[in-house]
């Protein structure tokens, strides 16, 4: 048996998000989860909670040097607080101070000229910092932790801010560089960051650590992927919207993918893609309450209810394109999508009529913010059609099974919503999802109403 097969029998990849490594206490709790499971050999972590946001702000260019120093001070404090509680801070403090110095220098560059490449370089420091601290905490628990820089393994393309990983290369690099370490070590490494073929740092987009963990789990043929966060798994809807939201014990890959895609913020939308490719069961749980259980996401599950969950995504940008000329209706869609593809604009939802198409724009790059159509794209599209852009909309997605071929399901759904004005309804393309746009200020009410009538 080669190494890969030996490990795959019992190898868990665990990912801890920002709140699970927020400070010494959170890191210690997470480290205890790692040491409690001898199968956990690879641990990927996020930056300490709040750190990436500050790094993004610095990367966007803070010209006032006092403000810049204040931000660096906040970052220093976050990491110093952990250092102060270590038994042997001397093992990692030079590395931490070195990285903080780098941030200060790079933030000064960003104040005079920003770039997507520089942004990735700056924001990658969050994970570079947190992994030093976390591996030291494991070492102090007598665990054989080694910190590995994931960048030479997590190979991506050149799209800074939202780089596309290259799974085949990642598998090869992980086999060479990661697997040999697993016999005697627990590897601690960074989520979210990677590098292109020249070794230049890239990131996978905000919240990308989940995706990183799934890619590494796929690359090493892991038997389980654990995503540790601050909530005990997936819920029928965001419990902050309604206290009637219920935890989901087990859910299929298809349903969970729809949930992640449509705004259930608990998983990065791409996370399940590698897990599905390799059929790796995914566990989502809370590092604050590991004994409370969580959600298992798998290929096949025992129950497939008609209505499973509701997801809500704010900040939607809807673009409606109406053909200028009926003659151009022929090939119109092809032309529209050629232009969008050329500018690497990713579309989420789409509905069409004879001469018009409405679509929503995807929004996950590291810079953050609501998506907009670049001016040049508007100009190119305007040659072809009237371009109308609308914001202030939210997307509500209902996730379930066989919705499009179960009689009466549309009546149940739309009946509950008769007092609301729905925009752009997408129904039928997937048996697992029905979604629509609605004015932002009505969105939470709509979710509560639908939850009460379909899920309670
Ligand atoms: N630290 C990154 C972020 O805040 C990646 C992650 O947490 O998944 O977006
Ligand atoms: Mg995060």
From TrEMBL:
EC number of this enzyme: 2.7.2.4
Pathway linked to the protein: Amino-acid biosynthesis; L-threonine biosynthesis; L-threonine from L-aspartate: step 1/5; Amino-acid biosynthesis; L-lysine biosynthesis via DAP pathway; (S)-tetrahydrodipicolinate from L-aspartate: step 1/4; Amino-acid biosynthesis; L-methionine biosynthesis via de novo pathway; L-homoserine from L-aspartate: step 1/3
InterPro entries for the chain: AceGlu_kinase-like_sf, ACT-like_dom_sf, ACT_Aspartokinase, ACT_dom, Asp/Glu/Uridylate_kinase, Asp_kin_monofn, Asp_kinase, AsparK_Bifunc_asparK/hSer_DH
A GO term for molecular function: aspartate kinase activity
All copies of domain ACT, residue ranges: 321-396
Catalytic activity: L-aspartate + ATP = 4-phospho-L-aspartate + ADP
Protein name (record): Aspartokinase
